Fold this sequence. Notes:
By secondary structure, the protein is of the alpha+beta class.
Amino acid sequence: MNDEAETVPPFIPPGVIPPEEPLPFFHALWKLMDNPIETWPRAVYEEPYFLRGDDRQMFLYAADPSMLRDILLDKAEAFPKDWMFDRVTKPALGEGLLTAQGDHWRWQRRAAAPGFRPDTVAAMTPLMVSAAEAALQRWRDRGDGVRLDIATEMTGITFQVILDTMLSGGDGIDVPVAARMITDYLETLGKITPADLLQWPTWTRVALAPRGYRAMVSLKAMVDRMVAARRKSPSRDDLVEMLMQAKDPETGRQMDDVLLRDNLLTFIGAGHETTALALTWSLYLLGAHPPTAARVREEIARVAGDATITDAHVERLIFTRQVVQEAMRLYPSLPLMSRMCAEDVEAGGLKVTKGTFVFIPIYAIHRHRLLWDQPDVFDPDRFSPERSAGRHRFSYLPFGAGPRVCIGQAFAQTETVAILATLMRGAVLEPDPGHRVRPLMRVSMRPQGGMPMTLRLLTSPA
Ligand code: HEM
């Protein structure tokens, strides 16, 4: 599982500095509001697992791949999603695919699966490339040397991609307005608040976050209008149609308008911010490490020449894909998954008691001293086929694993490479030397204050 020694000067991009010991209670509470990932003690990055708590509540941070395999795959039934996750996500996403459990989850997963098959995704590549080309054209119109917030730019592109690919353009959904509402929601109601930690009644979450609540109501209304319009319009070949037609094979049940809306909001929410962040961190790393950027441009020129990027090119952009994989290792869009232990059970040789909160600290697993050589170094070559051979599947979890693995994985992998390749051949993006890059954990891992970068336009494909 260890990688070979480095041969190039190591580039260590900014990361979280963990506390040596668990923080005292009030310090931890304050940190949980500021940047929860900074509460994870060093042991989470160095030990196979880290267990703490008392008779009332135990917390397990699992990093050992065989333990993770038990939790996420082999004994997944004993580790359902937890009440805190429900509390934070269900008000917006109801009983959709991300939040449902058991049979209700299973039939929805089967219903949505055809929309995410590799051949379906490959056919969507032109729409992904078009969204990136449109952004590049906007950048050209603004001119060389402008400062862009790449995080916002990437959100705009990936939101457009979700609407174009999954919702046939998303009639009636105003991208900037909806993107702002999603941000309002994620910054308030979409994150864990003191009301959750202290287990206050759920209505207090809403009372404490009126801006987030208004955003959620408006978003639901926007999608409801779209669903109503689609019910009346002729059928189209997209995910909305697939979900409208899907039938539970056992009960014959179909999705009513509420469940349809919950799922569409799930795909819009889960499908664009995560991908935008993978692109943002990739572009930051490439901007900060010109030798790697030069290799990426050389590969794009060799594979695609001057041609528009296609799914066949994406298949062959091996090094570009490795850069995205490495960006998602260093800055996983979702840095944490959580589960609740539902019965006394053994995981990776450890006895886990019923009621234990189980954290899967993806960010720390990806930088774990026992799993990765020089874990903090940016080194896309660690994902070369030779160096990946023998690596434990459960040491790299940007998309999760097991039955609840991300349904959009293939979609996101194609999208990130297609968009990155399109942007890289048209522009050089230089990080702002005066901006401190700090990974901030909300639900996702965002750069604090966005990602300001200076645009240098390339006149012809490099
Ligand atoms: C780089 C991009 C992405 C990342 C890093 C990512 C990450 C993840 C992770 C870690 C999970 C598992 C959560 C858990 O088990 O607790 C997940 C689930 C999910 N993702 Fe993604 N995702 C990405 C893109 C997408 C896209 C493009 C879509 C849809 C268009 C999507 C839709 C979903 C859904 C619906 C689930 C729930 C699946 C289930 O429970 O059956 N994701 N994602």
